Amino acid sequence: MPSHREDLDGAALGIIRVQEIYGLYPETLTGGNLTGIPAPLGPDEAFHIAQVAYQHRRFQLAFLWASESLTQVKKGVEADVTETALLEYLASSSLHFGDFNEAFFSYQQLLQHDPMNATVREQLSECEIKLLSETSSDITSLEKSSDPYMALCRGEGIRMTPQRQRALFCRYSTGGGNPRLMYAPVKEEDEWDNPPIKRYHDIISEKEMEILRSLSRPKLSRNKVSNRGGGRISNVRVSQGAWLHDHEDPVVARVSQRIANITGLHLKNVETFQVANYGLGGQYKPHFDALVRFPVPGSFDEKAGNRIATVLIYLSDVQYGGATVFPVAGVAVQPQKGSAVFWYNLLRNGQRDNNTRHAGCPVLIGSKWIANKWIRERGQEFRRRCSLSESE
Ligand SMILES: O=C(O)CCC(=O)C(=O)O
Ligand SMILES: [Fe+2]
């Protein structure tokens, strides 16, 4: 079981991650204005985040958090961390980042605290040389990441033209004439054209969502993967989620059946529900749900086939962040409680559709709950016709 320390480091990493993506300065986060952070962050917490950022070579954020801590200490906020420790972090982070002006300034202040310190004197003259011979970067201005995944998370870079937009519709669907839906058609909305992504509104009630969440909670905490928040920055997948079987509760079976009715796909070869919860900074980096070549020995079981389609149910709203984005296609789908999005991962010819690469953006405010249902190829032959074409 992770220690308290690991939990704290995980929380710090969550904060670092959302800052990088959304371009947020520490002072935006310390006030406690953002409800995702339970308490205002004081100088010691700010220093801890600076240390974690430094360990992960995020020198700019290390600098910004150390200066936030120093500002608070100078204002007289009580803290364990000393000004000298903070100045050392400021100086070292600036050097690593290549801001020799800031490094010089921090070493000067360190020298005022300890005028005889020979190492600091040496560092100061090194900075002077660098300032004369190299261009200095500016560590104080935070640049947002230009990564297409992260840009989409901020709501930038959505690739839709008005012409394409006009072809997207909203309709009431009976799942292709399914008798179970004839009297209660479901509201279907086109979210995107390529790949086609559909959203089904209000497909699950508040009560059903609460049951899915509460059935999952004990499993999530048992595995200590309770949210997709903590963990190393480089992790592709932070947690595994909780598997919910249809026999565990009639509600699980009922929701599975409803998905089959709506999508028109056969329930025989579907996976059990996977429920996941993301806390502050929780994300799921870009990935495919289907395998590129199938079958791969030892991966998905061969009999059921590849993951032909994905149904992703949002069991919560998210106040800020947490969109499901498709970086190749250029689309961001916002979580909407009680709705489900559906897309095919495979083209009709059985090849993986590379436009279906997708990710779950870091949660900035709130908590995100989802339930996934992956539908496998076998059994869908008569429900979705195959094609021999290269591109379909
Ligand atoms: O959290 C999301 O929005 C996406 C989750 C996902 O892609 C997955 O669980 O496979
Ligand atoms: Fe996925």
UniProtKB/TrEMBL annotation:
Pfam families registered for this protein in UniProt: 2OG-FeII_Oxy_3 (PF13640), TPR_P4H (PF23558)
Ranges in coiled-coil conformation: none
Molecular functions per Gene Ontology: iron ion binding; L-ascorbic acid binding; procollagen-proline 4-dioxygenase activity
Entry GO terms, CC: endoplasmic reticulum
Keywords, sorted A to Z: Dioxygenase, Endoplasmic reticulum, Glycoprotein, Iron, Metal-binding, Oxidoreductase, Vitamin C
InterPro entries the record matches: Oxoglu/Fe-dep_dioxygenase_dom, P4HA-like, Pro_4_hyd_alph, Pro_4_hyd_alph_FE2OG_OXY, TPR-like_helical_dom_sf, TPR_P4H
PANTHER family for the chain: PROLYL 4-HYDROXYLASE ALPHA SUBUNIT (PTHR10869), PROLYL 4-HYDROXYLASE SUBUNIT ALPHA-2 (PTHR10869:SF244)
Entry protein name: Prolyl 4-hydroxylase subunit alpha-1-like
Gene responsible for this protein: LOC115811264
